[in-house]
TrEMBL record:
Gene3D superfamilies: Zn peptidases (3.40.630.10), Zn-dependent exopeptidases (3.40.50.10590). This is Cytosol aminopeptidase domain-containing protein. It comes from Staurois parvus. Residues 228-235 form the Cytosol aminopeptidase domain. The keyword Nucleus does not apply.
Length: 409
């Protein structure tokens, strides 16, 4: 790989994507020895000295994170059910010396997590809220990453069709990205409190499935009239962000999810859609995306005009919009935010990765690089600082391009 120092991180993550771990081809299992690929970096341009050992360690953590996320997303639900996902989280916890907090099955119901419980209760494998917490000494703020982990989405009783259901093993892409990024972030020395929350459920059908018209009480204390059981991601995430806010006292809550098919219409296959209550963070997400290769573009944030799409006569809100042609991806995100409250003073960022989570038949591990870059400033790692939105100013990096841009104005 021949590139400039500022492009090393994005390039390494891109290369990692090209070598997926998951396969069940019988020919692969017959091969005893594992194939190995050697990647060499040749730095050009400014700062083109040799690559430091710390840089290589960071690239190792980041690429491992990307490939872990992609492997989980590629693995079908008969192998990656909620039990297996909990095991994946526990394995990462063990490696980092963190004991996960696991709230599962009937305990979810008892403790008021009506969103996660309601979505997952029809499945053979119980739903779960799992939390990994990194709380270093000297931390100055608390960050929560909340991932949507629907290990399979049939749509529930509002069932999907035979052409729209295949691929729904990927509906856990947000949680997979949070896991991959958390592992890498902690390994590289994260200076602030960081909680990774995994909202795990299989949206299945059965006699115990949630029906359209059912009303659920979520962890926020708000009631939701279910009018579409296929709009389940926002229900599990609403519980996750409420917990981050009420129980973990987070200052910054970011949720990541394969939330809406409409995301692909709004921002396409290559850019995730970001919705946030904070303009600075909106810009930071876009910048971070350009630095790490996980591209991002903003959605309209306007709760005062959009949130009434969820109006219900008998509950605090419905879970699916009245008009599907009115900024659907924005509305879906607003549903989540409404459970921490639009007047909550903290930073809330929602990243919808429904389309970029895969490229054709393969998972991309999208989101891992984005989280590492976006929160790079909270890391001790020099490379993650460099690719953070506050890292080395773009103007300094490329004065010529900047001059041209200025001339256009
Ligand atoms: Zn769904």
């Amino acid at each position: 790989m021949v590139c400039e120092r500022s492009e090393v991180f994005a390039s390494a993550c891109a290369i990692a994507r090209a070598f997926p771990l998951f396969t069940r081809r019988s020919s692969a299992s017959r091969r005893a020895e594992k194939k190995s690929v050697t990647v060499e970096f040749l730095l050009i341009g400014q700062n083109n000295g040799p690559m430091e050992f710390t840089t290589l360690k960071c690239l190792e953590s980041a690429t491992e994170g990307v490939r872990l996320a992609a492997r989980i997303v590629d693995t079908p639900c008969n192998e990656m059910n909620t039990d297996h996902f909990v095991e994946e989280i526990s394995a990462v916890g063990k490696e980092l010396g963190i004991i996960p907090q696991i709230i599962r099955g009937e305990e979810l119901k008892v403790r008021g997590f009506g969103g996660i419980y309601g979505v997952g209760k029809a499945a053979e494998h119980a739903p779960a809220l799992v939390i990994l917490s990194h709380t270093p000494e000297g931390a100055t703020q608390t960050i929560a990453w909340v991932g949507k982990g629907i290990v399979y989405d049939t749509g529930g009783l509002s069932i999907k069709g035979k052409t729209t259901m295949p691929g729904m093993k990927r509906d856990c892409g947000g949680a997979a990205a949070v896991l991959g990024a958390f592992k890498a972030a902690v390994k590289q020395g994260f200076k602030d409190n960081l909680h990774a929350l995994f909202c795990l459920a299989e949206n299945s059908v059965g006699p115990n499935a949630t029906r359209p018209d059912d009303i659920h009480l979520l962890y926020s204390g708000k009631t939701v009239e279910i009018n579409n059981t296929d709009a389940e991601g926002r229900l599990v995430l609403a519980d996750g962000v409420s917990y981050a806010c009420k129980d973990l006292n987070a200052d910054i809550i970011l949720d990541m999810a394969t939330l809406t098919g409409a995301q692909g219409i709004a921002t396409g296959k290559y850019h995730a859609a970001v919705l946030t209550n904070n303009e600075e963070w909106e810009m930071a997400c876009v910048k971070a995306g350009r630095k790490c290769g996980d591209l991002v573009h903003p959605l309209v944030y306007c709760p005062e005009l959009h949130f009434n799409e969820f109006s219900s006569a008998v509950a605090d809100m419905k879970n699916s919009v009245a008009d599907r042609e009115n900024a659907q991806s924005s509305c879906a995100g607003l549903f989540i935010a409404s459970h921490i409250g639009f007047d909550w003073p903290g930073v809330w960022v929602h990243v919808d990765i429904a389309s970029p989570v895969h490229a054709g038949e393969r998972a991309t591990g999208f989101g891992v690089a984005l989280l590492l870059s976006l929160f790079g400033r909270a890391s001790e790692d020099p490379l993650l600082n460099l690719v953070s939105p506050l890292g080395e100013d773009e103007v300094e990096e490329n004065p010529e391009r900047d001059t041209k841009r200025r001339r256009l104005v």
